[in-house]
Amino acid sequence: MRPIHIARVVVALYLCACRPADSAEEYVMPVDPHSFANTEVCRVRHLDLELTADFEARILSGAVTLDLEREPRTTQLVLDTDGLDILAVEGVKTERTGETAALPFTLGEHDPVRGRALSIELGAHDRRVRVRYATRPESAAVQWLTPEQTSGDQPFLFTQGQAILTRTWIPCQDTPGVRQTYSARIRCPAPLTAVMSAERVESDAPGTFAFRMRHAIPSYLIALGIGQLEFRALGPRSGVFAEPAVIEAAAYEFADTEKMMETAEALYGEYRWGRYDLLVLPPSFPFGGMENPCLTFATPTVIAGDRSLVGLVAHELAHSWSGNLVTNAEWADLWLNEGFTVYFENRIMEVLYGREHAAMLRALGWQDLQRGLEELGGDGPDTRLHVDVAGRNPDDAFSEVPYEKGALFLRAVEAAVGRPEMDRFLSDYFDRFAFQPMTARRFLDHLKADLFAERADLYDSLEIEEWVYGTGLPKSARAPAETAAFERTRHERERFLEGAAAGELDVTGWVTQQWIDFLRGLPSTLTPHQLDDLDRTFGLTATGNSEILFTWLKIAIAHNHQPAFPALENFLIRQGRRKFLKPLYQDLVKTDWGQSLANEIYTRARPGYHAVSRETIDDIINPKPSTNPPD
After folding, report:
1. pLDDT digits (tens, 9 = 90+) for 574-594
2. From CA 105, how far away is CA 557, in angstroms rounded?
């Protein structure tokens, strides 16, 4: 961990106001090693943005006004920034007149992970502070796209704040342990539309879009998108925004969104965010989806035409409970967001699409976890659920572990106590800790006091502490049960490997997940004839299904199957989803011949990637020294 100022060590004495209702114990929230903010004595409770988007200069400029809750003797507000031009800081004396007075401020030395601390000297009565500022074109959170990079004839802008990038477009207390409400007014040129992770409210100024988030959220969930957008309703409280060329396909693909909302509510309680809309972003978006409240940001790579990849919507919707409602207090506990969400997602998919479909998703998740653990050394330090990310960017620890190991842990608990009891516990958990930060220790204490109150021996036999704080998988971990659907894929794969032609295989009715399982199980010793036969028969190189194409391209790289390389190059250039980019570039650079091809493709593709993807792929093409903590 990086050295921390003595004043911040006092944070260890800071008692979070929220605690389990049935416990007198107050939980100490951890010091966030990724934030400079002095949240122990001065907290932002509301944030009001007024920004103008300049697409020619690639700058957002304006001001943010912060409403503070502060200790009486506090003389300073410390915010997180990174790459911002701070123009002025003012104390807002009254809301009615808007009278302001300049406040002294300083920017600290640049930290390669955290950016720069903005320290503001407060007057005795300052409760509102306005920071006038501008972003820079290279802001890591903001991607500015030219019309050529979109599906239309207009530019596009989107932000991506998770994990610690909101500070690159808003001066704020950029830690998931602090929640605030927010409002915003965004100016952009016609014919563009602005959308945000908040309720849209009426604006009386042309070219200005106004928003309000009534619930307190962590800073990483503040999000902005601007583009030439159309809207289609999916239900009474759900819909989708997308560029005109994409909107009809998106509306068809996400038609079951309202059903997903109803299913989620039946499982774990009321949806508390009002509307649930989706924004389909241009292909450079680095993630499958981002769970911004009220408005999930989604990649177009899930638009397969057959609704086979809509598990992503179920995942991001589930975050409305696990992540947005109850949030990891620090990035060391990302699993509290993602593991719960994978578990919840699977429950939604089971209700809507059947047990067999959900079982296939669990089996593929197990495969993903096994590969992820292997990449991390089997029992490396980053295979823990509660992982040490101090002193490095939380994204450097990104893996399948918080997602799939976290979900596997919850399924192990469910198997031990029964589904009805597990559902009761989770429904109560989301309600009891709504709009609060959560740590691993706090969750486990609550789990033990509630679900295992009369079953302490069972708590120990399930190795629950080992699941969270231990590396790898506990001895008690079990793979998901085999599925009849994957028994079919295994049978047909064995037939193919024994000499049957691809055209002789029985693939009738196969869904995306079966194709992925079939392809993943193929050996690395296929002949050119076998590869050609598979591709010619099933059109794998030409498929519009991104998940199947990705899996096939990995096979092509493993076999140096050059007929697929034009599709590989096109895939790496036209989309920026890190889930796909990282493994493909990794596979290329591992080969004698692939390093030069990876460099050649990346040189062309890099300008179109978001900063999140660029940082990951930069380290693959030109590796930097490891920052993994010692085990």
Report:
1. 999 999 999 999 999 999 999
2. 53
